[in-house]
Structure formats: structure tokens, C-alpha cells
Amino acid sequence: MRLGIIDTENSISEQFFTNQTSAPILNSKEVVEKNDLKNLDALLICKNQVFGMREVCEWVIKMKMYKDVPIWVASSEKQLEEKNVYLQLGVCGVFEGNYSIEEINLAISNNLNIMKNDSQEKIEKSEFFLLDPLKLSLFIGESSIPLTRLEYVLMELLYEHKEEVCTYEMLAESLLGGQFELLGETGQSRVANVICKIRSKLSQASEGKQDVIKTIRSRGYMLTLST
Q1: pLDDT tens across 101-153, in order?
Q2: Which residue ranges make up each domain of the chain?
Q3: In Å, how far from its chain's centre is CA 205?
Q4: 30 pLDDT higher than 70
Q5: Contacts of 166 (CB under 8 A, 6+ apart)
Q6: Residue 32 in contact with residue 45, Cβ under 8 Å?
Q7: Cα–Cα distance between 227 and 138 in angstroms, integer?
């Protein structure tokens, strides 16, 4: 991840570049100009006598126009009103007064590490559950689960609306079309029967550890991949 530093006096950036305690996550630290903003993963803005509050606010706004990344402000002064303005603009934190390079380094490193882990977790969760329309198969991790056409139709709808409730009516309409009364016992029973078969296959593939299809009482079902 690349940390950009706006420091017109080079007082902080020089210490950052020579500091030996930097965490590995901060493997690229550079003083940046406007054209560099879009390539950053985080930004540290240093306020000083020349580069004041107005300039800091302008750069925060510029950064957010290019990319939504975490921003910190470092200032040798303690001014509550200024700090509130920066926070209202969306910065993650403000280092004030007698801060140390180690303090800034650790705070930014810890936040970026959390972001990196969250991003990796989201990627892993999306890869954990995949549908293959050509093979009518569901992949959970390294397991491949063959589905019937009707099972695949329901799983596809549940996946399109993951983390949301798919009502019996929605599922029955997708499964049965206009051939059955959607609110009737036949449609709901047919959906429940197909869901039961899918759950059985999921349970076998995950040895009973994955229960991704939740029953929402009197409403329908929900595919949840968040846990």
C-alpha cells in the first residue's frame, strides 16, 4: 500500500523516509503532487505556517474527488475548531502538538492493516461461493456440488439477492412461472422441497458446517455469506 505525504516543509516526510520502525504495510512513502492522488492508498497532510487550514481542506476535498482513501492531518498546534472541521470533511484522525513519527507511523499502519485484512476477507468470501451456469454446479471452496435445473434456478435467485429475503412468491414465480398459484400451498411446498434438497447437498459438501440458506419465518429464505 502506498502512503502519500503532503509536506511543504519536509519536516515529517524526511523523518518518515529515514525512520526504521515503519511497518511493512507502508512499503511506499512519497511526497505527492495533485497528479499522484489517484494512485494512493492513504494520505497524510502536514499543516504548517505556510500550508494552513485552507490548503489542508482543499487537499482533502481534492483527494476525495480522485479516490476515497483514509486521510490523516498532522499539525503542531492544538485547535479544537480546526480539528472538528477536518473530521467533518471525513479525515480519519488528526495528530496534534507533540506527536512523534512513531505515533503517526503506528496509527496509520494499524488502520491500513485492518483495511487490507477486510479487503482480503471480502475477496475470500466472494470466491468461497460460486455458481457455474454451464455445468449447473455450485462451488463452495474447493467442493463442486451438482444441481438440477430447478435447484440451480433457486440458487441463482438467492445469490442475486444475497443477504436479502427472497419471498416464497419470488421463488415460486422463478421456479414455476405462471403455472401455479403463487400464494397457494402447491407453490410454497414445491419451493420448500427444492430448498430442502439443496440444503442436503450443501450440508454433505461442507460436512454440516455451512448453513448459508436461512429460513425467514412466514416470508421465505435468505442466502447469507457474511458469517
Answers
A1: 788 888 888 887 776 665 554 444 445 678 888 888 888 777 788 999 899 99
A2: 2-119, 133-223
A3: 27
A4: no
A5: 157, 158, 220, 221, 222, 223
A6: no
A7: 18
Mean pLDDT computed over 196-210? 79
pTM of whole model > 0.70? no
Residue 12 makes CB contacts below 8 A (sequence gap 6+) with 5, 44, 46, 74, 101, 104
Q: At what angle do helices 80-88 and 53-66 cross, to 10 degrees?
A: 10
Q: What are phi and psi of 158, to 5 degrees?
A: -60, -40
Q: Which CATH architecture has domain 2-119?
A: 3-Layer(aba) Sandwich (3.40)
pLDDT in tens, 38-54: 677 788 898 988 889 99
Contact criterion met (CB below 8 Å) for 89 and 60: yes
Q: Which CATH class is domain 133-223?
A: mainly alpha
pLDDT at 181: 52
Tell me the sheet residues that pair with 96.
75
CA 71/CA 25 separation, integer angstroms: 16
The count of other CB atoms within 10 Å of the CB of residue 116 is 13
User: How many Cα atoms within 13 Å fall on the side-chain side of residue 30?
Assistant: 13
Percent of the chain with pLDDT over 90: 17
